[in-house]
Amino acid sequence: MPVSLTPAAAERVRSFILGRGRGIGLRLGVKKTGCSGFAYVVSYAEEVAAGDAVFEDQGVKVIVDSDSLRYLDGTEIDFVKQGLNEAFKFRNPNVVGECGCGESFNV
Q1: Cα separation of 39 and 28, whole Å?
Q2: What's the rounded Cα separation, in Å, for the pair 8 and 62?
Q3: Which of 7, 33, 84, 98 is the most buried (most CB within 10 A)?
Q4: Which residue has the higher pLDDT, 89 or 96?
């Protein structure tokens, strides 16, 4: 599976969609930005667009646009809480470097 979720990430997506009362899954993409080239773009999906790839893991859909898929192939998404902070974290085997702040990456 090109994109997968840890149990913590799957539970976070399910609970957030349930709480907001709408959505079909997690939308994941990349955009050109930052000092290293790319940054992850995460949102909740309302629909599947033409050309999107849809993966299902642990009962949760992950939707990736066709332009981003080559950068995300093999990525595992986790959800981590550290003190008052919580965020999705990405284990992406395509990444060869990250900026010092961890906000952007290159492949």
Answers
A1: 11
A2: 14
A3: 98
A4: 89
